[in-house]
Amino acid sequence: MKTKILVTREVFDETLEYMAQYCEVESNQADVPLDADTLARRLQGCGGVVCNLTDCIDEPLLVRCPQLRVAANIAVGFNNIDLAACTARGVMATNTPEVLTDTTADLAFALMLATARRLTEAEAYIRNGQWRGWHLKQLLGVDVHHATLGIIGMGRIGRTIAKRALGFEMRVLYHDPIRQPADVERQLNATYVTKDELLAQADFVILQMPYAPETHHLIGAAELKKMKPSAILINSTRGGIVDDAALVQALRDGTIRAAGLDAFEGEPKINPGFLGMKNVVLAPHIGSSTEATRRAMAMTAAKNAVAALTGSKPPNLLNKLSVRA
What we know:
Rossmann fold; seven-stranded parallel sheet; about 35% helix; alpha/beta
């Protein structure tokens, strides 16, 4: 008898077809978000779950789902999964690194360019019928080329953003708990600095680290005050890393120039203060959202789940557990 697996949100047909070769698949193709109680009920009798960052895989859920053996996240981040609880209960947890690195780096750069050159404001200007022709001081932005880029979080995506910056001849500063090897710093023309030094010097600050208790509100009122008044903040990683209320106030006060945001505290709700601001570019958490990348993410999660349920080690296992056939 095939092991049952639940897919919590809509995925691609080829993902379901792949898993169906090995498992009995139940999928929420209607794409209706599952609350905690509904998720627990639908997981009864399931050996695996292919989940999303909106699904909370925590101790209360695991208690109700004793047959669960693997939680395969369709994301590189896994702050929605209680890794310690999974490990304690023998549940393998996996993610989807690498396949989204380039795409997410592209989006971070797109946010930076769009914010610097006021593209969303310019588009609204045209759509609202306000444009009356060219003039010298119209929608003045700031240059990205030759500017100083500060990257906080120098993992795969951070390093790839730094590669993009080479083409714009940017000066790159970075801060991370782990310093990169000297040869990597040379290749990326990147200089390691303290967080305070980065905030003080950077024209653009890009955040690219996982959310965790230690990164909660890593950028708050005090940090924003350390940035240049002309600086632009880009959050292309996770909500909660920035104190959104403090950022709204900083933008209102002119503490920094602008922000480009693809992640928010409490999303899909966002601080309403952002909505009326012209100096903010907003995106609905689409960092990895290209068709090719999202297909690859879904298939990677499916392969992780199938491996775990058929006696193999998942390629992207996050916790150290013995595989059970």
